[in-house]
Specification:
Elements (H helix, E strand, L loop, with lengths): L1 H8 L24 H13 L5 H8 L11 H9 L2 H10 L3 H12 L7 H10 L2 H15 L3 H8 L2 H11 L12 H14 L8 H10 L2 H11 L7 H8 L2 H28 L7 H11 L4 H12 L3 H8 L2 H11 L4
Helix pairs in contact: 2-3, 2-4, 3-19, 5-16, 5-19, 6-7, 6-8, 6-16, 7-15, 9-10, 10-12, 11-12, 11-13, 14-15, 15-16, 15-17, 18-19
Length: 328
């Protein structure tokens, strides 16, 4: 594991074009035997008082848990409860299935969980969103776009739908300085320069341009505006639209730092926000949690592992620490 981490740590992150490298803390298990694992989990469930440790040991160290027998999900639901149950059931899904089910849950029933919607839709790249849409349709027999449109409104809905349509340009080897300057000027003229905000222009630029292009646009933007892009967003828009634009800009600048800060915020209060903690750890453990750990330590001067240990307890804590993959 240490060698794998070292190798992955030397890779640089890019968006689109070539395949984006990953920085997982959970990797494929050697000599994986789903039938054997399933039998061990079944025994752990039937043990008097439930053997949570064995369940945790197996499910937090397998990339291919999706191959475990389906009837285990029902058994786990009956054996576990609370945050540990949510965590373990999350691990029984692929990353795209988990994201799709979290999106569905955020739009279910009365009221919308905007925080989850914003976090997932605004932080996933084209490829991830395309896979989530495909899986969403398979799981719920509905289009993600239709559910988002039915559950949100106004400019907030327009931004989310523009992102879900996955029309973002792929990165190019050619740097178009003219286009960078034009986009930076358009963002300034659509916002800070005028009275009222031309949100449609902001949406089209932020939902369609490639990430490397936008990174350069935000740099150039400072030569037009007295404020940087994030300050401009805070001045121009409010509520869910503000949160969405800020999430986008933070993810364009450094996606792993965005998640590191979300994890830190979730553990700032006395009791950790377990829902947020579970969602980020489960959805990123096979993607980039190793790099999120690095950003966390750099930004917050203590390791993610130590912070989780301090703010959680019991079997839930053990499972999170196992998924975290070690201390820094």
């Amino acid at each position: 594991m240490a060698l794998v981490s070292e190798f992955l740590g030397q890779l640089t992150l890019s968006y689109g074009g070539e395949v984006e490298p990953t920085f997982p803390t959970v990797v494929a298990a050697r000599d994986f035997d789903p039938a054997k694992d399933a039998a061990r989990i079944e025994t752990a469930i039937k043990t008097k008082g439930v053997d949570e440790q064995t369940i945790t040991d197996i499910l937090t160290r397998r990339k291919d848990y999706i191959l475990l027998q389906f009837d285990l999900i029902t058994a786990l639901k009956g054996a576990l409860s609370g945050s540990l149950e949510a965590l373990m059931l999350g691990l029984m899904k692929s990353t795209a299935q988990y994201d799709a089910s979290e999106l569905k849950a955020s739009m279910k029933g009365l009221g919308t969980d905007e925080e989850t919607l914003i976090e997932i839709v605004c932080s996933r790249n084209n490829e991830e969103l395309a896979e989530i849409k495909k899986v969403y349709k398979e799981m719920f027999k509905k289009e993600l776009e239709k559910d988002v449109a039915g559950d949100t409104s106004g400019d907030f809905a327009k931004l989310l739908l523009a992102l879900v349509q996955t029309k973002r340009d792929e990165p190019s080897n050619v740097v178009d300085y003219e286009k960078i300057d034009e986009d930076a000027r358009c963002l300034y003229e659509a916002g800070v320069k005028r009275k009222g905000t031309d949100v449609a222009t902001w949406i089209s630029i932020m939902a369609q341009r490639s990430v490397p292009h936008l990174q350069k646009v935000f740099q150039r933007y400072k030569s037009y505006s007295p404020y940087d892009m994030k300050e401009s967003i805070r001045k121009e828009v409010k509520g869910d639209l503000e949160k969405s634009f800020l999430t986008l800009v933070e993810c364009f600048e450094n996606r792993q730092l965005y998640f590191a800060n979300r994890l830190s915020d979730a553990m700032k209060s006395k009791g950790a926000k377990e829902k947020v903690l579970t969602r980020i750890i489960v959805s990123r453990c096979e993607v980039d949690l190793m790099k999120i750990r690095t950003e966390f330590k750099k930004q917050h001067k203590r390791s993610l592992y130590q912070t989780i240990a301090e703010h959680t307890k019991g079997d839930y804590q053990k499972a999170l620490l196992s998924l975290c993959g070690g201390d820094d």
